[in-house]
Amino acid sequence: MWIPTDNEKYGVVIASFRGTVPHGLPLEVGDTVQILEKCDGWYRGFVLKSPSIKGIFPATYIHLKNANVKNKGQFETIIPTEDTVITEMTGTLREWGIMWKQLYVKNEGDLFHRLWHVMNELLDLRRQVLVGHLTHDRMKDVKRHITARLDWGNEQMGLDLVPRKEFSMVDPDEISVTELYKLMEHRHRKKDTPIPTSTHHLFLQMKSLMCANLGEELEVFFSIYDSRENHPVSERFFVKLNKNGLPKFPERMERQCTLFVDLGSSDLRKDIYIIVHIIRLGRMAAGEKKNTCNAQYRRPFGCAVLSIADLLQTERDTRDSKEDHMLKVYMCNTESEWYQIHENIIKKLNARYNLTSSNAGLSVALQLLHGDIDQIRREYPVLFTRGVAITRKLGFSDIIMPGDIRNDLYVTLERGEFEKGGKSVARNVDVTMYVLDSEGQILKDCISLGSGEIPVSEHHSFVLYHNNSPRWAEPLKLPIPVDKFRGAHIRLEFRHCSTKEKGEKKLFGFSFVPLMQEDGRTLPDGIHELLVHKCEENTSFHDPARYLKLQYCKGNLHGNSQPVKASKETFWISSFLCSTKLTQNGDLLDFLKWRAHPERICDILSKFKDIDGAEIVKFLQDTLDALFGILDENSQKYGLKVFDSLVHIINLLQDIKFQHFKPVMDTYIESHFAGALAYRDLIKVLKRYIDRSIEAERQEHIQDVLRAQEYIFKYIIHSRSLYTLATGGQNEEEFRSNIYELFQSVRYFLSIESQGSSIITQTQAVFLSSFPAVYSELLKLIDVREVANLVRDTLRSMPDVLHVEYSLEAVKLQCIAKTVESQLFTNPDSRCILLPVVLHHLHMHLQEQKDLTMCARILSTTFCLIKKDSSEITASEEVDMLVDSLLGVLLRTILEISNRSQPSGPTIRLQFQDVTGEFVACLLALLRQMTDKHYQQLLESFTSKDDLRDFLLQIFTVFKILIRPEMFPKDWTIMRLVTNNVIITTILYLSDALRKNFLHEGFDFKVWESYFYLAVIFINQPCLQLEMFSPSKRKKVLEKYGDMRVTMGCEIFSMWQNLGEHKLQFIPGLIGPFLEVTLVPQADLRNVMIPIFHDMMDWEQRRTGNFKQVEAKLIDKLDSLMSEGKGDETYRELFNSIIPLFGPYPSLLKKIERETWRESGISLVATVTRLMERLLDYRDCMKVAEVDGKKIGCTVSLLCWENGIILCRELADQYESFYDYRNLSKMRMMEASFYDKIMDQQRLEPEFFRVGFYGKKFPFFLRNKEFVCRGHDYERLEAFQQRMLNEFPHAIAMQHANQPEETIFQADAQYLQIYAVIPIPDNHEILQKEAIPDHIKSFYRVNNIWRFRYDRPFHKGIKDKENEFKSLWVERTTLTLVQSLPGISRWFEVDRREVVEMSPLENAIEVLENKNQQLRTLITQCQSRQMQNINPLTMCLNGVIDAAVNGGLARYQEAFFVKDYILNHPEDGEKISRLRELMFEQAHILEYGLAVHEKFVPQDMRPLHKKLVDQFFVMKSRLGIQDFPGYARVSPIHLTNGSPRTCRNPTLGAISPDGARLVNRRSPLSYPAFNRYSSSSLSSQASAEVSNITGQSESSDEVFQMQASPSTSSLSSTHSASPNVTSSAPSSARGSPLLSDKHKHSRENTCLSPRERPCSAIYPISVEPAQQTLTQQIGDSCMPRSDPNLSAPEKVMNPTPSSWSLDSGKEARNCVPDSAKLVSPPVPPRPPHTGSPAKTYRSFSPQAFETPPANPRSPHKSSVQSLTPSPTDYQSLGPVYNSPVLSGSSSSGISSLSRGSVTETTLTDGTITCTLIGSEELIKRENGTFACMPPRYNLSEHGTGTSRRRAPLPHSLSVPPSAEPPALPPKPHVLRVHRSEGENRMDEILVRPRSQPRKVSQL
Question: How far lies 1848's CA from each of 18, 1521, 1812, 1883, in Å?
Answer without folding.
Answer: 103, 11, 9, 15
